[in-house]
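Worked example 3. Consider a protein that binds flavin mononucleotide.
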Amino acid sequence: MKVILVNGSPHTDGCTFRGLKEVGDTLIKEGIEVIYFHIGNEAIHGCIACRKCKETHECIFKNDSVSKFLKLAKDADGFIFGSPVYYAGMNGSMKSFLDRAFYSSGDVFDGKVASCIVSARRSGTTATYDEFNKYFGISNMIIVSSKYWNNVHGQYKEQVEEDLEGLQTLRQLGHNFAYVLKALELAKKEGLAKPNKEKPIFTNFVR
Ligand SMILES: Cc1cc2nc3c(=O)[nH]c(=O)nc-3n(C[C@H](O)[C@H](O)[C@H](O)COP(=O)(O)O)c2cc1C
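Given these inputs, the predicted complex is written out as structure tokens:
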């Protein structure tokens, strides 16, 4: 069982990564393989709504982290996305990354397990948590929660170290995430199939 932890922060070893690592270390203790994927300082093009991916099943921008990630993501069982809070939302590169990854390749996420972690100096965490969960909720994913909303506080990673409650929340998230992955594996072994999906119906509110 494999989980990809995606760090949207330009800081590969900052607060967001400190939070992701708390989840990752817990998953490793639970016997789950983890891969860290950093978006870093790379400029990620936003979705241009060309809808070419609806014909080709891939994004027209092929040479950035999104396509690298999607190749890895095919074999993953779960995903944990992490972002610093920028103006009470996820950071810009993470937003562009998720728009393109989910819009072009929803099948890569369908039926898999997902969660997020967010890091802020002070506030905007729950708005960012909501923002993440909307990608999972529209993609037929199994969302894992913790004992609190998944956030840590700090401007520098040393400050996250002092957020003992935040880190504990993320350890609990790791245990819960591993439990869900193991339960799904058991269900598969027992022959319990994932639910069928109906043929999609699209309705418009404006006619
Ligand atoms: C452009 C920008 C906007 C930010 N907006 C917020 C904000 O709305 N709320 C907040 O608490 N912190 C805000 N911060 C601080 C970061 O969210 C915070 O320091 C975060 O933990 C940094 O994570 P990192 O070390 O992984 O990059 C902002 C930082 C930047 C650079």
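Take a moment to read the result before moving on. Helices lie at 15-29, 53-56, 65-73, 92-104, 106-109, 125-137, 157-162, 164-189. The pocket of flavin mononucleotide is lined by residues 9, 11, 14-16, 84-88, 119-124, 154-155 (CB under 6 Å).
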